[in-house]
Design brief:
The chain is mostly helical. It contains 4 helices and no strands.
Length: 133
């Protein structure tokens, strides 16, 4: 994923998170049980956090476009789709087996954060090797 695509995706997913949060607060409160509303809100919360991670990743890609950053961006995107997406569908449908998809998204989030850490370590090593600080 390019820096431009990462940043554009983050911006669009951020807008979607706001819309979904408002939908939950105003449109679903009278329809869903408290438990399913909490499930939906968890999806919104994780989407917001990982949109932030995508934004940071995209900004770093503009300065230093490493393989680790590309992997991280893809992992964050996959995590949002699988983790938050499965929670949205679970809350709206009530189909419990959809919860089995959620851990795949959580694993992708972990991979994204670890990839971000690897990239930062590689950048620091590059700067140290070149005498920059």
């Amino acid at each position: 994923m390019s820096a431009r695509f990462t940043l554009l995706t983050a911006a669009l997913l951020g807008a979607l998170a706001v819309a979904l949060g408002a939908f939950a607060a105003h449109g679903l409160r009278s329809i869903l049980s408290v438990r399913l509303l909490e499930v939906f809100q968890t999806g919104v919360d994780y989407q917001f956090w990982h949109v932030g991670a995508l934004l940071v990743t995209g900004l770093l890609q503009r300065q230093y476009n490493s393989r680790a950053l590309k992997v991280g961006a893809l992992a964050f995107l996959f995590g949002i789709v699988c983790f938050s997406g499965s929670l949205y569908v679970l809350a709206l449908s009530g189909v419990p087996w959809l919860g089995a998809i959620t851990p795949l998204g959580g694993t992708a989030f972990i991979i994204g954060w670890l990839s971000l850490a690897v990239s930062i370590f590689q950048q620091e090593k590059l700067h140290a090797d070149s005498g920059e600080r």
